[in-house]
């Protein structure tokens, strides 16, 4: 399995030393196929080190009244030793119990993470302000990203700790571990940043362990935050301001089943657009939908709505339990890469906001806004892996759920209804030949041969479906031990007119050394204009003073997967957004369109339920 998204997880030393169950949670993150960078704090370990050598630990009192550990040149060797003896050793031991490979070191070793010594500190000593010039506290400046990315690809878990290295000073300097985690998350474009603490997130009242603050917004004043937690807040805000990751503080000493404080780079007053802005800010590249699915499960607590995450990882909500079942099927995954989400007065930009988080959030609002009659069921599902060939979520839904009609959550624009999609015929062509001199008589390179095979396949497919579209989307070439291998991925978009049995008409045998593997063969689908579901949308459009515009898309959606066996089930797609922006770096969704499509969707669902009672 290729690795998916990057988690940066900051663990305090008390959690590392005293709560080994956290490593089972880290194991589960890694086993889901993610890269994991642990950043470890050292307060508890440093205390243990000083106790073991019976040395008094020095502190400084700042003018603010905060007390900080004093790291002078004389103390630095003991601090480094504490991390090696009590933190890195423990992490190695615990993670290896779970069969994980681990690369762990101090951030400053080999200058892997580097910084700059801070200016002299002001401190209070004997009730007087003094200047402390030899404190080795410093600031993050950068990291050797290429090495770290290689290590993250090679090992299950990479672990770094303070101190880091100051190349000008030619010495180690200390840095706050929370801030280090935030900087590394930004530097490496992490998808998720987690701070695991000994409390249940940020507390409104530090004396009340159940007073967790669930959300922190840009303009929030956190007067209750004290001591070490101030640095966590500072670090979390740095990460959401400068990075692409989602961020929360959790605990006590756990990521799972924990109380959490989420941080949002957005203002509080967003009303009906609040959920959309949060969902957009949780990265969910295909095969990394876990965090978004669990966030929705924990957040959507509407009356009479049941929620679960099924075995495929789909997020599933149900309202009502009657025989007439309407499925609203969206998807929660996106294509890579992820960039910072930005909100302005007119809308929102970010990866997946058009394709298709805006559509799915509209579906979730239907759970709250639509009255489901006794004879009906409203099923809302956010599928996983829609954007990759597996279509894991849709295949599971096809085989384990049922419905009388389906609305797919894909961008159609406010005034259009999608009746169908082209299918996807995806091939991997592999050519394997012994190496020859390019000047030899009759020699043809494997890459040229690939192009020839692609041309032949295109001709064969056009004979079956003249309306098909094709694209050679990837080529890989390697030379190993005197043999040349080239692999190409060839995509075809197959029109609904080609039917369901088009693959049986295409001969993909090309002789010795050439193999063609069918990665996906999904037929196109086109829904009738005359069924009850379309009629419900026509009436909804008319109620808003709009005439309906029917479209068929040349892309492929989960509609195609369901249609392979759900032969008599009406299906359409509707949702906000300009589909020409799908998979581009210009995805932008207008607030007005979100709200207007939500109104049309609500009326169409209500009308479908009403029409079903008349049949």
**Fraction in beta strands:** 25-35%
Low-pLDDT runs: none
The gyration radius over C-alpha positions equals 28 Å
Give the total of beta strands: 32
Compute the number of helices.
15
Q: State the helicity in percent bands.
A: 25-40%
Estimate the mean pLDDT confidence.
95
Could you tell me how far the N terminus lies from the C terminus, measured between alpha carbons in angstroms?
Answer: 49 Å
CATH topology of the largest domain: Carbamate kinase
Shape estimate: globular
The total tally of domains equals: 3
Tell me about the biggest sheet?
A: 8 strands, mixed
* Name of the CATH superfamily of the largest domain: Acetylglutamate kinase-like
User: What order do the strands of the largest sheet run in, or round the barrel if closed?
Assistant: 5-10-2-1-13-15-16-14
Q: What is the SS-derived class?
A: alpha/beta
CATH class designation of the largest domain: Alpha Beta
Write the CATH architecture name of the largest domain: 3-Layer(aba) Sandwich
Molecular structure report:
It contains 15 helices and 32 strands. It is globular and about 85 Å long. The strands form nine sheets. An eight-stranded mixed β-sheet has the order 5-10-2-1-13-15-16-14, with helices on both faces. It is an alpha/beta fold.
Q: What are the key terms here?
A:
single chain; 615 residues; alpha/beta; Carbamate kinase; Aminopeptidase; Alpha-Beta Plaits; 3 domains; six-stranded mixed sheet; globular
Give a summary of the structure in a few sentences.
The chain has 615 residues and is α/β, with parallel strands linked by helices.
